[in-house]
Fold these 3 entries.
Entry 1:
Amino acid sequence: MTQAPAAPKAVRRRHDREIIALAVPAFGALVAEPLFVMADSAIVGHLGTAQLAGLGIAAALLTTAVSVFVFLAYATTAAVARRVGAGDLQAAIRQGMDGIWLALLLGAVVIAVVLPTAPALVDLFGASDTAAPYAITYLRISALGIPAMLIVLAATGVLRGLQDTKTPLYVAIGGFVANGVLNVGLVYGADLGIAGSAWGTVIAQFGMAAIYLVVVVRGARRHGASLRPDAAGIRACAQAGAPLLVRTLSLRAILMIATAVAARLGDADVAAHQIVLSLWSLLAFALDAIAIAGQAIIGRYLGADDADGARAVCRRMVQWGIASGIVLGLLVVLARPVLIPLFTGDAAVEDAALPALVVIALAQPICGIVFVLDGVLMGAGDGPYLAWAMIATLAVFTPVALLVPTFGGGLTALWGAMTLMMTVRMLTLWLRSRSGRWIVTGATR
């Protein structure tokens, strides 16, 4: 990062309050999201193994489809926050509406693709003859909720840009409760089986989208912002999101390659990999909450033409990332003997997972820096650099990971390669932040 005078204690305390106020509710909302799938799994699991297997395949496809469009939240947060910093709330909400309209259009496209290709997609995942019908049923029904899911992403970005992470938390909690109640009622009460679980989730998702739209529309009316679709604005949102789409696809490719390599190591290793990856993802939620705060705060400072403030808060968030990473790493080490038995009683799986957990524990401070700087550069609208940096990271990681089965080391070596991947990301992000080229002030980048 570009060097700046040390911030006075009062300024650091103000930054800390801003980070905590945004990060804590953001963490709660992030954790609530995977609980949807967990609740569905718990309810459908009692129907039978084939139904649960079908749900697992369909959920993996849906999660991938939605995660690809996470740029709707990230790009919208940065753009809206800039306009908030510039003091133009009308333009901020107008920008947010463009993102929501883009989400609706993308959702319609995804439905048009998924409905006719659902059987082929399920077959691509290697579903058994008994699980495939359930996977197709769940996928086709749940696909109808994708527009609502994408609207939720975009609207969440609007509120984050407006420095509000509490409303997304409340909506996520309400959606989780509604999803559980609806699923139980439709699966067992109405005897709809796995279709009932899918319909319950779709209804909950549209309910969440409706609440978000009410909040955003009220804000638009209060500040005189137009609600009509604007072709130029929607096109600008798509252009801003395209580099983040490349970044996300590159990251998904890294995770898929890691899983493919683990599968070549043997059943015990791939089972242990799934456990370690699940825990790694959980830790990522905590660090991503700080990154979300970074997106909102950095965008606001740059929109207010306060380059020094942006540098100072960036430096403070990096300190938060490092400290959080150290704490999370220590927690993993201390809880290691307890964590693995929660997932498996297989001694071979435990033996493979335990040393890999040590590796991810040691890597957490690096992850903390990566997540924070990723959020900072997203908040600055520095998407093209993030895209190229992730492509470079993918290029470094792929050959190293593919050589793991050849040179041995098992799952521990694979997670060593994952740590190398995070280290490369840290270096590329640190070099960018230090250069200061991400600092572009004004209501637009």
Note: The CA atoms of residues 71 and 245 lie 6 Å apart.
Entry 2:
Amino acid sequence: MASKPSIPQGTRDFSPAEVSKRQYIIQTIKTNFEKFGFQPIETPSFENSDTLMGKYGEEGDRLIFKILNSGNFFFNKNKIELPESIEALQSNSAETIDLSQRIELNKFTGRISEKALRYDLTVPFARYVVQHQNEIEFPFKRYQIQPVWRADRPQRGRYREFYQCDADVVGSKSLWQEVELVQLYDTVFTSLGLEGVTIKINNRKILSGIAEVIGASDKLIDFTVALDKLDKIGEDGVKKEMIEKGIAAEALVKVQPLFSFSGTFADKINQLSELLASSEEGMKGVEELKFICDNVAVLGLATATLDLDVTLARGLNYYTGAIFEVAAPKTVSMGSIGGGGRYDDLTGIFGLKNMSGVGISFGLDRIYLVLEELQLFPETVAATSKAIFINYGDKEALYASKAIQKLRQENIKVELYPDNVKVGKQFQYADKRLIPFAVIAGDQEIESNSYALKNLVTGEQITVDFEGLKNALLV
């Protein structure tokens, strides 16, 4: 008995209609990337394991899909030679094995897997820059739209295989890049008709400065991870978690203003200036944010809002300056639909030091869900033909095909029903495909060199010559 067909958890099939909508989003993003001067590159779907491992933290390493080497070299007399750490994993969770077992496990993994599916586009980009540094003109503005893979727990808007749409600039420390990236976000979402998004911005230096002011520099990560949960667990929950992580209760008194942080961007900048007056690092962050905010204010945004969010702490392991996150309009319940930030030495992990960069990413899958929920996809975004020519036989099909050939040269999507079957069946096919027009070309039309154009939505039918047919289908 044949097994029931299925796909791996966290992956999806896409229908023609879904692919058309996804391509509409991708094309809109791509067009605007190029409008802002970004150039396209592509990297392999899999990289050498040592390129990826250790670049995303312990949690990220666990989510990397490793590719098993071909061959059976690790079998011995029909038995797999398993290190003791594997046996430990069979009875314990990965968190409970000790360091020596973990090292042994990593060695074993290295013997059977030398490659891995890419986890994101940023680390492969850093590898690309280092490998091709003599061919690149810096500053280098690149965009990349390709799939990535993560062994994550699937949920709404989160999958194991998904596309990332990234734009990065490396080789420049200028804050004008951040200003342009805010404009790029605004331009893309405006082009998609998605008005009212909030571009949240923060700065790693501000988070470091706050930790310094309250005497918790050694607990920066614990502090920011807890602060990042403010909207989920509230002020009391955040304070409780900070105390549990060893941050003194008196330190929380100094940070109290963060829990009632409000007002305009300028108001928040003033509050931060007071809070961080004693921190040189923190004040650098304030000045950087002020520069970005002031210039964006002068240039203006079409439909987005720029907002300072001091609780924003994404990517803290490698972001060194500005941090971005884009929130969908409040009418939609959805996580972030974009994010990014400034990283001062990402290429340093591959030996190229002092190569500052900044980049942003668009969440294709979540943007799709938002556009779908708000019904923002244009009616013209469809995988279907504009018209179908009814097949009455070979003579009529040839007459129709001549018109079809000319219409396609005008970039009009049309097709001929391939078989000479009952007309009712052909109309039924067009209806199921959501094709809006049918073109009827029988003996009478051939004799008068005309076409009968039937609107399958309204039922209206008119007789036209070729120019009339072309103009009607161009609308």
Note: The two ends are 52 Å apart (CA to CA).
Entry 3:
Amino acid sequence: MSDPRILTVRPEPGEYAWTFGGAPPVARIAPGTVLDLYTEDCFAGRVRSEKDLVSEVCEFPFLNPQTGPFHVEGAEPGDTVAVHFVSIEPARDWAASTTVPLFGALTSTHTTATLQPPLPETVWIWQLDRARRTALFSARDSDIRIELPMDPMHGTVGVAPANLEVRSALVPDAHGGNMDTPEMRAGVTCYLGVNVEGALLSLGDGHARQGEGETCGVAVECAMNTVVIVELLKGVATPWPRIESDTHIISTGSARPLEDAFRISQLDLVQWLVRDYGFSELDAYQFATQTVESPLANVCDTNYTCVAKLRKEWLPERETHRGLHGLLRETAAALGR
């Protein structure tokens, strides 16, 4: 690969996208471009203390701001955009998490309606030690303080949906979006199927860390300084977002009910084994059944997201996605980031 072009983007408060689709591109980029990005947290930076309740400082539906979209030159429906995460670093020394009334997995919601009163709004401010790579949990109702390792990730990355759709940045689906999987960390490559000319790639929703499932609906939300390399695979279709790490291939599925999200991710993994690793469909089904890991991503968004991941060391020596993950890892190493 030739030396990549580096584009630095630091959006002003009024320059974020709130949807996938329906927003004009902020820049046109050639495949191979390195994007050095600032992304704001899901609250648009408005939850800064325990007194800042989401219902008072945020304006629905303007939640989960995205940096972008970026028009990828040459991208057409039927292609795949590859996003390699070189680095994901918290931009501040603090992060915020909350409970939100009628939102989350262990409370009544608008669609799971009961006579229970909504949970109260409560804010936790997490202190981040970026040098030591830790996030400090401070209990609200006791003197408990527990230091956890940071595991920075992006909850949201996606492209414009198909069929002229415009989707809120809060929604995960086949275009990507708010999948909230901890697998989206530095060192991985995310593959997204292109639905419109230019793909219109955006990302945001940085998390200093998040448990699988994001049970209360809110992670350790923080602004991020993130570097990605964007590449294009012509003529390669990707029906659902896929992730490749050094150790695993990972399929995602987003839907409700949860069983359908699970089925989508498992089926996509089976089809991946058939396309790139030489399995028949039934052999892939049997092999995946006995080897797959199935962590939850989120069980709280408008669609739930499940993940199906499989260790590369157990797979035949075959090339997937034209060996792009390995090439992008080499480019990232050359950047010295």
Note: The helical segments are 54-57, 258-277, 281-291, 324-335.
